[in-house]
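Sample A.
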Amino acid sequence: MLLYLFNGEDSLSRVEVSKALSISLQRVYQMEKLTLRKLKLSMEINF
């Protein structure tokens, strides 16, 4: 879902993700923020 975060050649923008999933841009930002928090926590636990 949030693979667009990685700025690869075929990455999606937040707007494209919002349209594709029929959710608000604000919700995309919220999901991104939550995902980044979980990733940070996971990295802290595993290292």
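Sample B.
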Amino acid sequence: MGTQGHGTFPYRSVDIPDAKIRFAFSPNDYITVINRYSNNRAASGGFDYFYVDIKDWGGALPGHTIRLGKHKIDIGVETWTDNPVESIVVTNAVSHVSGYDEGINLRGPLTRGRLPWTYSIELLNGTQGFTMSAQDITIGAKVGGLVSDRLYLAISAIRTGNLVKRDGTLDKPDLNIAEVFDPPAGAMGWRRSIWEIDLRYNYGKEGIKSIVGSQPDVPWQAAVAFGRLVDDADGAPDRKGSFGFAEVLLNLSPRTYLGLRYSQMNLEDGATAKLGGSPVAVREYRRYSLGVGYRLSHLTHLKTEYTINDAKGGSSKPELNQFAVGVATKF
């Protein structure tokens, strides 16, 4: 990996940006325990998530699941493939919404048949670590399904409680957007709200299709997303903005594919933040990603990408363009 002077890898680097080991244990037909260790950059210090799935509500409600523990927050769709292995390119959208939190997730079918729809409801701790927010919990919901044989639509929304610790100091959320976790400047308390609409074509009945492990069974697939962020501050101006992305995957041959993505995050009313990991606070960040992949096998791909990162509205204009090449595999 290599970047321009203000990026993460100005002198080039050989890295392991994403490596996960997932363990599953099912003592019976209804209970599954999932533990996934993160070995990013070959470290081995903790786990991403650790939860229990109670399928069919223990037999009381077929098709529906209760998820208890620390799990991936189910808001948006990109979050389920936001890594160099499963994404159509190496990087994520600059505005991607993601996070892991402790709590309860209820999920299951809303409708069945040729065009199925599903629901997901989140009741979460909301704050980083295992410390409980002094006020309220985080509540989120998502509905999604097929509107035609190939077109998938999802609508998501989430709102945290007041991100203040019991000692009165400000806390940070587990819910990430554009790598921004800090509260608005001068806030005495704050809450984060996000909503997102996703429209995806040829991504399957659940809108999710990992590039590694899937078949090149369609000539192309495309996705667009748009959303809004409101960091509601007490005693200071709110931080508001819009975000979104558009991506296309073209299967040039059974082995070769081209991935294109444009993503952006814009803050309003003069607000700035270190969007997308920018070294300086900026108002606007746009990312243009061009990737080429080659299927060495069904589960191992050679991937390369050139990324143009355009950040504006800060005290300076950082140079953040990036080139990456690597091998992605699942087993």
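B remarks: The chain has no helices and 18 strands. The chain has a mean pLDDT of 91.
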